[in-house]
Specification:
Elements lengths: L1 E6 L2 E5 L5 E4 L17 E3 L18 E3 L3 E5 L2 E9 L10 E9 L2 E5 L9 H7 L4 E5 L8 H11 L3 E5 L14 H7 L2 E3 L4 E3 L9 E4 L4
Parallel strand pairs: 3-4, 4-5, 9-10, 10-11, 11-14, 12-14
Antiparallel strand pairs: 1-2, 1-13, 2-3, 6-7, 7-8, 8-9
Helix pairs in contact: 2-3
Length: 211
């Protein structure tokens, strides 16, 4: 399974059977190059311009933008309702957490989660192999809150997202606070991570590079 990070909260997941799942695609207004290509599935955590630009896809994929249980070919997807803020959606609305079972991996994309999940909400996620979590604050949880939540979820691999880089023009914090909180980040040399086998290690943070 291959993860490609395009910036913000947008990932392309490619399975061992050549299925493509695009998560939270953005439009061309935030500074990163917009994804262009085909996908079999698109998930949208919430309908803001930097998370729901499905017109970037050149074919006709299945779009999932609501909580619920889905099965497409050999991929199972569960959408869990949550909030974009810490006041039950009163400030920024709702957010959908997506859980995927892909190639035997349990993958979680938290979207624009705006609060630290309760113990009961964490339990509902089950065992997570790969966690995609926002760390940039302002619109979502910040780096310290993300570190707290990562330790509660206790996944194997963590892919931080939605933070300030040299590309984005949005008013976000960088990943430094999150890295300091976790203390074990590995900086990758590209925006691609390939996983063939699971690891027993916990909370391994992978920082992508976009060039």
């Amino acid at each position: 399974m291959k993860f490609t990070w395009y910036g913000q909260s947008c990932f392309l997941i490619e399975t061992s059977r050549n299925k493509k799942i695009l998560l939270d695609p953005f439009n061309n207004s935030i500074g990163y190059p917009t994804f262009k290509g085909e996908a079999d599935i698109i998930t949208v955590s919430h309908h803001h311009f930097d998370h729901d630009f499905i017109d970037c896809v050149t074919n006709s994929p299945k779009v999932i933008d609501k909580p619920g249980d889905y099965k497409i070919d050999d991929i199972t997807i569960k959408g869990i309702p949550s909030f974009h803020d810490n006041v039950h959606g009163a400030a920024r609305g709702e957010n959908t957490i997506f859980l995927f079972n892909i190639d035997g991996f349990n993958v979680c994309h938290l979207g624009d989660i705006g609060y630290v999940l309760s113990d009961l909400e964490v339990k509902s996620l089950g065992n997570v192999d790969v966690l995609m979590i926002p760390v940039g604050g302002n619109f979502t949880i910040d780096g310290a809150e993300a570190g707290q939540l990562c330790k509660k979820i206790n996944s194997n691999i963590i892919l931080p997202m939605h933070y300030k880089t040299t590309f984005t023009i949005l008013p976000l914090e960088g990943a430094e606070k999150f890295i300091m909180s976790m203390k074990n980040a590995e900086r990758l040399q590209s925006n691609v991570l390939t996983l063939d086998t699971k690891t027993n290690e916990k909370n391994q943070v992978k920082i992508f590079s976009i060039k």
